[in-house]
Each structure stands twice: as C-alpha cells, then as structure tokens.
Amino acid sequence: MRNFFLFIGCFALISSLLLGCGTNNGESNGVNTNSSQEKKDNKKLKLNGEIIKFSISQNEGASEVNLNDKQSLEVLTTFVSNSQKESSVANMDNPDYYIHVYYEKEDKQILKVWVGENGEKSTLMDSDDTHGIYTVPEDDAREFIELLKSISNKLSNP
After folding, report:
1. Which long-range contacts (CB under 8 A, 24 or more apart) does 135-138 make?
2. What domains appear along the chain, each with residue ranges and CATH number?
3. How far apart are CA 35 and CA 64, in angstroms?
4. Rounded Cα gap, residues 147 and 126, in angstroms
5. What three-state secondary structure class fits 5?
6. From what superkingdom does this record's organism come (predicted)?
C-alpha cells in the first residue's frame, strides 16, 4: 500500500511539473501580452502625432525649407513609417539633413537623416534617442529623396 501512495505522489509531482512547463504562446491569464503586430511596431520610428508641418535643413542652424502641403506630409510620413530599427548601435557622422517635425499640440521632434547612395538604405535617427538608428530601403526612400532634390536649391550650407 505504501508503494501505491509513493507511486501516486510521484505521478502527481511529475504531472504538475509537466503542466507547469507548458507553453502559453505569450499569453498570461488569457491576455496576449506580446502580439506580433506590437513587436513589429516597436521596430519602427514613431512620429509623435498629427504633423502640421516640417522643415528641412542641411545643418543645424542653416536656412530651412518649410513644408506643410498634403503631398509633402504624406511623403515624410511614408518615409518614416517604412523605417526598421537596427539592432546594432552605430557611431554616425554628421547627418545629411535635419528634419524638424511640428505637431498639432505644439510638440516638436527632430530627426536626423543620412541619405543612402544608389543601392543603399537611408538612415534615420530621432535626436531624443541617439543610440537607436532606423533604416529605410532604397525603394521606400525614393519619394523622399525626390522631395529633397526638388528643394535642394533652397537649402544652403552656412
């Protein structure tokens, strides 16, 4: 009889260990804590709200070109939303462009941009997070680069 109780005790212990080690696929108490969409969104550079305008300059303090037309706002939004966070930390040179993004609630965000050459990705950095960089594939950056070319005669280096 003693062996029977020992067997039942071992069986209960092993069963509870096996059940406790089961996978829950990121769910805790019926709540999915890490959806794949959230993980994907965490790898994109975030804009802080509804953009009302943005300005572009080649150097901090240099002359700026202000843009607030619908098409330019869409080009910038698409450019940023196609960015992907890079896992490595990079030591970057001075950016090609500074973009000051202005939002409805008087909030402002400064982005640094390095434009990729033919076949290269372009790179973004939020000035509030200088340890993270975001890259944009050449195809996804094409419209933004065309926008930069269209205003290049208005930009000057000090």
Report:
1. 135/83, 135/84, 135/86, 136/79, 136/82, 136/83, 136/84, 137/82
2. 44-154 (2.60.40.4400)
3. 40
4. 20
5. helix
6. Bacteria
The first and second tokens of residue 148, run together, are 């930069």
Residue 57 near residue 155, CB atoms below 8 Å: yes
Tell me how far apart the alpha carbons of residues 107 and 138 are, in angstroms, rounded to a whole number: 29
Q: What is the token pair recorded at 46?
A: 């975030």
User: Which pair of tokens denotes residue 92?
Assistant: 């970057």
Q: Which residues contact 66 (CB under 8 A, 6 or more apart)?
A: 53, 54, 55
Token output for 115 = 């434009």
CA distance 80 to 112: 11
pTM surpassing 0.85? no
Per-residue pLDDT of 65-111, as tens digits, reads 999 999 999 999 999 999 999 887 667 889 999 999 999 887 899 99
